[in-house]
């Protein structure tokens, strides 16, 4: 990073801290009686421990999206998500399956923690509930509580999946700042669009070779926690398998946009997941628009023998980027893993079926949904970005 960039970043960081301090003083005077809510995000764990994430903030007044929400309503809800006032340094009591933990939030209201679970849980439960109760500050409006779910992969699971979200599952157009901003600010969960065939492919991965494996799927993104509700609602509407959605806090410094922050966040989240399940192999899914191949190369090197395959969707269709990914693939190959560079979901699904990781008859569902998402059957609105039929080229498979 150039010296001027570092200096500017430090200046903005100082301004950010001044704004936070001023905001804290104003809120302490004017908003002591505002209603508070605890957002409990989806966590993950095993038979003995769980990792949870959440946030304490003043109520935002955002309701689930509707089919006829106006652009103005979407913009107002986007503003409410971005403007959300955190409850700084809140103390929260978390309980789950006989375990308990007290966690303290940061100055943005975010809290995270690992708690040891109590008696052995049902090995086939898959999802269990945790509760969060606000201890401090005391709300003048009474008890403040929230609840969320923790994913515990059942014993039937044979592998896990870790997937990027932006331009892998959802068409976020992150390669274009203006298009990405417009997509986030003026849309909602019902206007955002999936990549063709994603839901059927991920359903097949969850089902596995037997059709009943219930393989866990984790979603990791550098998008802000502020839009967690948009992403999870979108996935439910599109029937994309449910799983923990791990996002990150954004600040207003230039450094928050740097590639190193992106790599650090996603890499740390993936390492935490893999450490939680040391005996479970994984499939990693991403795209070429950001740094997924570079991140996954690091993970393969750190967890040799744990990554069955890496599926990368080529959303850039750029020869230079494809060449750089191929060079990374050579390094991945030396670590005894496989990289598949495909133009669409169907190419990746065919490879998974050939390896026996999903049922062969699931390919028909992926193909049918892909055509529907592309507008070929009239069942769905055609996806304008990423929905164009592929060139027909076979995916590039680089084996060990």
Characterization of this structure:
The chain has two domains: about 35-150, Sandwich (Immunoglobulin-like); about 160-400, HAD superfamily/HAD-like (Rossmann fold), CATH 3.40.50. It has ten helices and 14 strands. It has helices at about 5-30, 70-85, 175-185, 200-205, 230-240, 260-275, 290-300, 320-335, 345-355, 360-375, and strands at about 35-45, 50-60, 90-95, 100-105, 110-115, 125-135, 145-150, 160-165, 215-225, 245-250, 280-285, 305-315, 340, 395-400. The strands form two sheets. It has a seven-stranded mixed beta sheet with strand order 4-3-6-7-1-2-5, with no helix packed on it. α8 links the parallel β12 (about 305-315) and β13.
| CATH topology term of the largest domain | Rossmann fold
Task: Please indicate the percent range of residues in DSSP E strands (runs of 2 or more).
Answer: 15-25%
Strand order of the largest sheet: 4-3-6-7-1-2-5
CATH architecture of the largest domain: 3-Layer(aba) Sandwich
Tally of individual helices: 10
CATH class of the largest domain: Alpha Beta
Q: What is the makeup of the main sheet?
A: 7 strands, mixed
Measured between the Cα atoms of the first and last residue, the distance is 35 Å
Q: Number of DSSP strands?
A: 14
State Rg. 22 Å
Structural class estimated from helices and strands: alpha/beta
Oligomeric description of these chains? single chain
Average pLDDT metric: 80
Shape: globular
Range of helix content: 25-40%
Low-confidence stretches: 1-5, 25-31, 174-186, 252-259, 385-389
What is the domain tally?
2
What is the element string, with H for helices and E for strands? HEEHEEEEEEHHEHEHEHEHEHHE
What is the CATH superfamily label of the largest domain?
HAD superfamily/HAD-like
């Amino acid at each position: 990073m150039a010296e001027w960039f570092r200096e500017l970043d430090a200046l903005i960081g100082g301004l950010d801290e001044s704004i936070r301090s001023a905001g804290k003083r104003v809120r302490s005077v004017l908003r002591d009686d505002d209603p508070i809510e605890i957002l409990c995000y989806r966590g993950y764990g095993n038979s003995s421990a769980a990792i949870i994430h959440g946030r304490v903030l003043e109520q935002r007044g955002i309701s689930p999206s509707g089919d006829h929400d106006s652009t103005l309503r979407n913009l107002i809800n986007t503003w409410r998500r971005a403007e959300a006032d955190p409850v700084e340094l809140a103390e929260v009591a978390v309980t789950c399956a006989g375990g308990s933990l007290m966690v303290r939030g940061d100055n943005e209201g975010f809290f995270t923690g690992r708690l040891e679970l109590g008696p052995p849980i049902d090995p086939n439960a898959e999802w269990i509930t945790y509760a969060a109760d606000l201890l401090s500050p005391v709300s003048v409006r009474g008890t403040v509580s929230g609840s969320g779910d923790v994913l515990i992969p059942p014993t039937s699971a044979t592998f896990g999946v870790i997937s990027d979200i932006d331009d892998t599952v959802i068409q976020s157009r992150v390669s274009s700042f203006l298009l990405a901003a417009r997509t986030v600010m003026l849309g909602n969960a019902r206007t955002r669009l999936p990549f063709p065939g994603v839901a059927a492919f991920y359903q097949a991965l969850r089902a596995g070779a037997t059709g009943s494996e219930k393989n866990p799927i984790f979603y990791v993104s550098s998008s802000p926690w502020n839009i967690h509700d948009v992403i999870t609602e979108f996935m439910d509407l599109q029937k994309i398998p449910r799983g923990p959605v791990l996002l990150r806090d954004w600040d207003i410094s230039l450094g928050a946009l740097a590639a190193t922050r992106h790599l650090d966040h996603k890499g740390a989240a993936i390492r935490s997941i893999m450490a939680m399940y040391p005996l479970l192999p994984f499939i990693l899914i991403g795209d070429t628009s950001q740094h997924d191949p570079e991140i996954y190369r690091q993970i393969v090197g750190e967890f040799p023998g744990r990554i069955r395959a890496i599926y990368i969707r080529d959303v850039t269709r750029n020869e230079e980027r494809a060449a750089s990914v191929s060079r990374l693939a050579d390094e991945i190959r030396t670590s005894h893993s496989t990289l598949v560079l495909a133009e669409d979901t169907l190419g990746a699904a065919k490879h998974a079926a050939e390896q026996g990781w999903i049922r062969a008859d699931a390919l028909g569902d992926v193909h049918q949904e892909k055509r529907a998402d592309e507008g070929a059957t009239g069942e769905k609105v055609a996806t304008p970005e990423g929905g164009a039929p592929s060139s027909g080229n076979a995916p590039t498979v680089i084996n060990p």
